[in-house]
Specification:
Layout: E1 3-10, H1 14-21, E2 25-28, E3 31-36, H2 38-51, E4 56-62, E5 69-75, E6 79-84, E7 87-92
Antiparallel strand pairs: 1-3, 1-4, 2-3, 4-5, 6-7
Length: 101
């Protein structure tokens, strides 16, 4: 049964955006929304994790959790989903320090 998903991307290769747009709609640059089966969702996410490179991506989809959704991430992000007793909260990591000359 198809369910809704949202994939947000930052600085990913153009061919990945093209692959995602085959199954979803890019409603604003880098934000993909669609309704697909769990199998297609997992295949799309595998394609994202394989090709994200120096970019980053976040997948949000329905799940049988207290919040009603699950979050997956790929690439380097300052915001890291963290499980706190069954709730997924977002933890901010420190900003990278600038190199001194």
């Amino acid at each position: 049964m198809p369910t809704m998903l949202v994939i947000a991307t930052t600085a990913v290769p153009d061919h990945l955006r093209g692959a995602l747009s085959r199954w979803t709609s890019e409603v604003v640059p880098g934000i993909f929304v669609g309704s697909v089966s769990a199998r297609v969702r997992d295949k799309l996410w595998q394609a994202v994790t394989d090709t994200v490179g120096n970019g980053a991506a976040v997948l949000v989809h329905p799940a049988p959790t207290e919040q009603g959704y699950a979050i997956r991430t790929a690439g380097t992000r300052r915001r890291v989903p963290t499980d706190f007793d069954g709730l997924t909260l977002i933890r901010m990591t420190a900003a990278p320090k600038a190199k001194e000359m």
